[in-house]
From TrEMBL:
The keyword Methyltransferase applies. The gene is LAMT/FAMT. GO terms for molecular function: metal ion binding; methyltransferase activity. This is LAMT/FAMT protein. InterPro entries: MeTrfase_7, MeTrfase_capping, SAM-dependent_MTases_sf. It comes from Ilex paraguariensis (yerba mate). Belongs to the methyltransferase superfamily. Type-7 methyltransferase family. SUPFAM superfamilies: S-adenosyl-L-methionine-dependent methyltransferases. PANTHER family: S-ADENOSYL-L-METHIONINE:CARBOXYL METHYLTRANSFERASE FAMILY PROTEIN (PTHR31009).
Length: 462
């Protein structure tokens, strides 16, 4: 069923505005030129009884053959919506997540570089599995039949500032070199090109300053969201991502909507919240993972490999039963305490949510299996050091959170509250018998090794 929205006086609108019907919406266009609008069924008073429809229009779509486009004149756009409705544009929620955010830069006390030993544990635990995967599954013949393998291109998606990305790249590079040597002992090794990807605000300077001088690869930074394509089509031979596919691209709109059952009042995450909240997060995660796999499928050549180390939770657990959840809950409760003391309003806390989701294994598997561009070569739980080993003290736990979340928190609450917030957090963690009890830490990493199908085999698959 189609509904229509007309875009009036397109050319006279400022570039970041859009009109639907009579309504000119002066809202910013999203990261990829996507304008998001909440469309409500029916009149305002019946809001709560009707579901919301969030539609995405891309400027590209507005100018597509489906749109009756003629710049400067009103145009009509078909919007595919699953029910007949008279759209009534009520309001637009600004996307609460900044377009770009990053882990703490530099190499100081609060930096990601100094406080990512837990994430490093995942890379360490995956080393042997990656080597085995490359030895068994990297098909040099297949790769060279579909593309040039000189240079051999590797990319790390969500690299941050190091040092973990450098370790991962070294492991991959050595495994690939070994494979070339065993298959073509007399041939010269290809050159290696490594692309380091992260958000534009990532501190790439720190990363590039720490590149080992004796490295056997050329390095380039590729800034931009990995939920879209960041590299040319069919240009990549090995994709990697670690501890990054838990950051969702945006917050589900309904968790910020006081009229929605998914409104996440007084909390900063889905853990311990109503099931509607976690369902909204899960839906966003599934959409994002699909977008990630789609983008990587375009970038990887047929036969190319992708290794993902994905933070997750066991199936039997809800994430509120893991320390991932309870630690975030503790941070949220510190913010609420500060709001109650007048540092800022409670509404300020209501409008802050962390864009993080830890999928239960089954959910992750289902999303990956749904993608037809890759074959699943390996999927298993990593045997990485648990939190109480990687971060034995309350101080470590606090710095781990500060390094990851301070940027987002500062953006919303201001930098002046950070010291107090993390002091409070540190005290709460120390007092929490649950959080510091190793038996309660059920957070896991999944290793997923995928192989890009060649176009022909993809067409053959059912
Ligand atoms: C916890 S860090 C992991 C860094 C590194 N891979 C490691 O193992 O230590 C997650 C990184 O993913 C990045 N990230 C999150 N969402 C992203 C996106 N949509 N596009 C690119 N990078 C993203 C963050 O900025 C952050 O640097």
């Amino acid at each position: 069923m189609y509904s229509f929205a007309s875009i009036s006086s397109f050319s006279s609108l400022p570039p970041s505005s859009l009109a639907i019907g009579r309504h000119v919406l002066p809202y910013p266009v999203g990261e990829h030129g996507i304008a998001r609008y909440t469309m409500l069924h029916g009149p305002r008073q019946s809001r709560s009884r009707h579901p919301h429809h969030v539609i995405s229009l891309q400027w590209r779509d507005l100018l597509s053959p489906h749109a009756n486009t003629s710049l400067g004149r009103p145009i009509r756009v078909n919007i595919n919506i699953d029910q007949d409705l008279k759209p009534c544009v009520e309001d637009e929620r600004a996307i609460k997540l900044p377009k770009s955010y990053a882990m703490n830069g530099g190499d100081g006390n609060y930096s990601y570089a100094q406080n990512s030993s837990y994430q490093r544990g995942a890379v360490d635990a995956a080393k042997e599995l990656i080597k085995e995967g490359v030895a068994a599954k990297l098909d040099i013949k297949q790769l060279s039949s579909s593309s040039s393998i000189n240079p051999f291109c590797i990319a790390d998606f969500g690299c941050s500032t190091g040092p973990n990305t450098l370790l991962a790249v070294q492991v991959i590079l050595e495994a690939v070199e070994q494979k070339f040597k065993s298959e073509k002992p007399t041939a010269q090794l290809p050159e290696f090109q490594v692309f380091f990807n992260d958000h534009v605000l990532n501190d790439f300077n720190t990363l590039f300053q720490s590149l080992p001088p004796e490295r056997r690869y050329r390095a380039a930074g590729v800034a931009g969201s990995f939920y879209g394509r960041v590299l040319p089509k069919a240009s990549l031979h090995f994709a990697f991502s670690s501890s990054s596919l838990c950051w969702i691209s945006e917050l589900p709109e309904e968790i910020l909507d006081s009229n929605s059952p998914a409104w996440n009042k007084g909390r900063i995450h889905y853990t311990g919240a109503r099931k509607e909240v976690s369902e909204a997060y899960a839906l966003q995660y599934a959409k994002d993972l699909e977008a990630f796999l789609h983008a990587r499928a375009e970038e990887l050549v047929g036969g190319g490999l992708m290794a993902l180390l994905v933070p997750a939770v066991p199936n039997v657990m809800t994430s509120s039963e893991t320390t991932i959840g309870t630690e975030i809950d503790l941070l949220g409760s510190c913010l609420m305490d500060m709001a109650k003391m007048g540092s800022f309003s409670e509404a300020k806390v209501d409008s802050f949510n962390l864009p993080l989701y830890f999928p239960p294994i089954e959910e992750l598997e289902a999303s990956i299996e749904a993608n037809t561009s890759f074959s699943i070569e390996r999927m298993e739980i990593l045997n990485n050091p648990p939190k109480h080993v990687a971060m034995p003290s309350v101080r470590h736990r606090t710095l781990f959170f500060r390094a990851c979340f301070e940027g987002l928190l500062e953006n919303h609450f201001g930098s002046h509250i950070m010291d107090e917030l993390f002091e409070r957090y540190s005290k709460k963690v120390a007092q929490s018998s649950f959080t510091m009890n190793p038996d309660n830490d059920k957070s896991i990493f999944m290793l997923v090794l995928l192989k890009r199908k060649s176009e022909s085999s993809q067409n053959d698959s059912p």
